[in-house]
UniProtKB/TrEMBL annotation:
Function: Functions as a component of the nuclear pore complex (NPC).
Start-end of Polar residues biased regions: 18-34, 52-73
Cellular compartments annotated: Nucleus, Nuclear pore complex
Protein's name in the database: Nuclear pore complex protein Nup85
GO molecular function: structural constituent of nuclear pore
GO cellular component, one term: nuclear pore outer ring
UniProt keywords, alphabetically: Membrane, mRNA transport, Nuclear pore complex, Nucleus, Protein transport, Translocation, Transport
Self-association state and partner proteins as the record states: Component of the nuclear pore complex (NPC).
Biased composition, class Basic residues, residue ranges: 1-10
Pfam family, one: Nucleopor_Nup85
């Protein structure tokens, strides 16, 4: 492969400017001329003496072997440089033939190439193999990337509702991390660990990826214009927050990320008219800054009698505004290309100045990602160089000002002032930087050229200083302060770390909910929620983000029918979760027509652990079942609601129905959730015991029945008639028992006799008869028609048992 002559490097090494000056010096030209001037090293003098030297003629008849002018820092030598040819394309026969016509130097070069042909062939084959493997790897990587992109497109949200639905799982994962912190019972002022913050950062990136997917889908499918603008704005804000607070380490520099962010979300051509008004022109009294947005260089000679050849030259327009903005945005190579494209149209003086500006820009160290010692050394060296260049330019401009005043060339002066603006940007002049770009461009420019070592957590003071400079500039120039767009104002507040201001300026529930929640969980914003559960009937005053979250939950529930997700958002607020959940479901509960809707709401409450609201819904559901005479489900839901009073009432109703129709209803099967409540309901416990007693009597298990009656008689939590029922059942046990041992001992029998006498006095007429006939009808016994006969029968049975008890003793 033929080797081309190496050009001098455009990047400066980290050496003191006294040893090397990559941008040269500014000296006054010996005479006023339109020809090009270049700085060359004076071989006749020692040290680094430089001066302005006239470049060789540009006539087409100039000898090709004439020594050409060299860029700065290139040493002129007398050694002849030859261009070698590609050995792989030349045969030995061809080499022999051509060598006869070569000069001695060329012959030596060709001979050296022939001697190295064997090793070159081997190296070429090896390199070819490496390139082939690399190409295969590239193809595989491209295939994987394409597959990944295709998968992302297929899973991209296709509507606002899908965006909301896909956002909630991310929200839930961040909240899960936050709940782990709650379990530790640490105070909310406790610093969040770097691991937890890193995990939150991963989920925040999922938000950003989701928004990018949706935005890409809208672009590819001609989505609604307003929707695309909305998602674009959300992306700008979200991506900025991710780069500042959820990416990398806190001590990493932010300048590289913000350069990428600005150029990605705000291409220079998208700056609005309002954004450009502020720096479109400068005060005429400011001699340093005169703006020429589009200069027709070829048509500004200042002479009305110029010849036709001059007027027919191609017009070159120089967009100084775009060049400045490219510098501010960190697009240094683009700015350099624009300058090089128009440099030949300038006067010799301006060409020399501009070349030094280009050299200075090219020698700038790359933007840092962290503050390592190597970068700091490079930055300090370059800072010294740019200071020297600035001083030399100022002296050069002063030295030619007298000549320009005598024979003014307005265009040259204005161009030089533009060059001065570019130099001041590169030198980090904050006042100039604040004037020549939008707020965001100026902020990035100040980071690049003034404080590139600022970290992610140190943007506030710089943003505040820039805001003051721009406000001061507007006052000095007598201009009204241009209002920032909502998105820019939001980003401004974010850079100031004014989160309340940022979230209030961009009044969007989706952004405020998800971004605010992530910032709170990451410890960037104060929580403002003490985690104390308040009453379901009272609301606590907490962080505004949670109140917005509640409003967002209501909107997606009613507008998008996303009730489960809405309850999930509300559940993130420890203090007001129960109150807000009740308020959200209140209208739906009032309008519910069937139990299936209530079952669905109850399931949502269980999913998000709304205990108080769950009890409320269970009670409402139980009442619905009770109205439908579905006592089984009614009992279960009263028990789940921990409503003991309603369970007692339900048990009494079941016992009274037994007295009316003789049918004893089945009790519910206890579960872990309902057992505690049922056991606390004394009336339902009595119902359960009596059902068990009936089973013992039916199966002739008299001893078990007697023991159970003894327990039930201690506290009869049932309708009064069951005093009689239990006495009749006691008689049945004594009559049916064939065991020789005494079932009721003396004291127990005497207690039954006292209860019989007391009950006889308390009960109204025919109660004993009704109860006896109800119980005995189940065993096909004879029916008795008056109370006295029933009481007499019970008394005789108890007296006989008492005699037996006395005999046993």
């Amino acid at each position: 492969m033929g080797k081309s002559k190496k050009k001098s490097s455009s990047k400066a090494h980290a050496v003191p400017p006294s040893k090397q000056n990559p941008v040269g010096t500014f000296d006054q030209a010996p005479s006023s001329s339109s020809e090009e001037f270049e700085q060359v090293e004076n071989n006749n003098n020692s040290d680094d003496t430089t001066n302005w030297t006239k470049v060789g003629s540009t006539d087409s008849s100039t000898d090709d072997n004439q020594q050409q002018s060299l860029p700065p820092n290139t040493t002129t030598t007398t050694t002849t440089t030859t261009t070698t040819t590609d050995i792989t394309d030349i045969t030995d026969t061809h080499n022999t033939t051509t060598n006869e016509n070569k000069t001695p130097t060329e012959t030596i070069t060709t001979t050296q190439q022939s001697n190295e042909s064997t090793s070159s062939d081997s190296e070429t084959d090896q390199q070819s193999s490496i390139n082939k493997n690399m190409n295969n790897e590239d193809e595989e990587n491209k295939a994987l990337i394409y597959e990944r992109i295709s998968a992302l497109r297929e899973t991209a949200p296709r509507s606002r509702k899908e965006l909301y639905q896909r956002s909630y799982p991310i929200f839930a994962k961040i909240e899960h991390l936050n709940n782990k912190k709650k379990v530790t019972q640490l105070p909310y002022t406790y610093s969040i660990s770097s691991i937890r913050k890193s995990n939150i950062g991963k989920y925040v990136k999922e938000y950003t990826s989701l928004l990018f997917q949706y935005f890409e889908w809208l672009n590819q499918n001609d989505g609604d214009k307003d929707e695309k603008a909305y998602i674009c704005d959300i992306l700008r804000i979200w991506d900025l927050c991710e780069r500042l607070h959820f990416s990398g380490n806190e001590d990493d520099t932010i300048v590289s990320d913000l350069v990428d962010w600005l150029n990605l979300h705000w291409p220079s051509e998208e700056a609005s008219t309002n954004d450009l008004k502020r720096f479109h022109s400068f005060d005429s009294d400011d001699e340093e800054l005169v703006i020429v947005d589009h200069d027709d260089i070829s048509n500004r000679s200042g002479d009305d009698d110029q010849d036709e050849s001059s007027t027919s030259e191609t017009k070159i327009f120089v967009d100084w505004m775009l060049i400045r903005r490219n510098l501010l945005r960190g697009n240094i190579s683009e700015a350099i290309q624009m300058l090089k494209a128009c440099i030949d149209t300038f006067s010799s003086d301006n060409q020399g100045c501009l070349r030094r500006i280009i050299k200075l820009a090219e020698s700038m160290p790359p933007l840092p990602h962290n503050n390592n010692n190597d970068y700091l050394t490079q930055w300090q060296t370059w800072t010294l160089i740019r200071t020297q260049v600035s001083d030399e330019f100022e002296g050069f401009s002063s030295s030619i000002s007298t000549t320009e005043q005598q024979d003014p060339e307005l265009n040259d002066r204005r161009i030089r002032k533009e060059i001065n603006v570019l130099l001041k940007i590169l030198c980090g002049d904050e006042k100039v930087i604040s004037k020549v770009g939008t707020f965001l461009e100026s902020f990035v420019g100040m980071l690049i050229y003034c404080e590139p070592s600022r970290t992610r957590t140190e943007t506030a003071t710089l943003a505040e200083r820039l805001g003051d400079l721009q406000q001061q500039s507007s006052v000095e120039q007598g201009h009204e302060e241009q209002k920032e767009s909502i998105v820019v104002a939001t980003c401004h507040s974010i850079l100031l770390c004014d989160w309340d201001g940022a979230l209030s300026i961009y009044d969007d529930y989706y952004l405020q909910t998800h971004l605010g929640h992530a910032l709170i969980c990451a410890g960037v914003m104060p929580k403002g929620d003490e985690g104390v559960l308040t009453s379901i009937d009272h609301e606590a005053c907490i962080n505004p983000v949670y109140h917005i979250m509640n409003t967002y939950a209501k909107s997606i529930a009613h507008e998008q029918n996303m009730w489960d997700e809405a309850m999930g958002y509300i559940s993130a607020c420890s203090s007001n979760r129960e109150f807000w959940a009740k308020e959200l479901l209140k209208e739906r509960i009032d309008s519910v027509q069937n139990t299936s809707d209530l079952d669905q709401m109850l399931q949502i409450c269980e999913n998000h652990h709304f205990l108080t609201l769950k009890k409320l819904l269970c009670k409402i559901l139980a009442e619905k079942y009770e109205e439908q005479d579905n006592l089984q489900d009614a009992t279960i839901n009263y028990a789940r609601a921990r409503d003991i009073a309603s369970l007692d009432k339900l048990a009494d109703k079941a016992l009274k129905r037994y007295l009316d129709n003789g049918v004893l209803e089945e009790i519910v099967t206890e579960t872990n959730e309902t057992r505690d409540t049922i056991e606390k309901s004394t009336h339902y416990k009595f119902l359960s015991q009596y059902q068990q007693l009936c089973g013992f009597l039916k199966n002739n298990q008299y001893d078990e029945g007697a023991n159970l009656i003894k327990q039930m008689l201690i506290s009869i939590n049932a309708p009064a008639e069951f005093q009689v029922i239990l006495l009749i059942d006691s008689m049945s046990i004594l009559e049916g028992s064939t065991n020789k041992h005494v079932i009721f001992n003396e004291s127990e029998t005497l207690d039954l006799m006292r209860r019989l006498q007391q009950t006889r006095n308390d009960m109204h007429e025919n109660v004993f008869t009704q109860c006896y006939n109800r119980v005995r009808s189940m065993s096909n016994s004879n029916i008795i028609n008056n109370d006295d006969d029933v009481i007499s029968k019970i008394s005789q049975t108890l007296a006989f048992n008492l005699a037996n008890a006395l005999l046993v003793v």
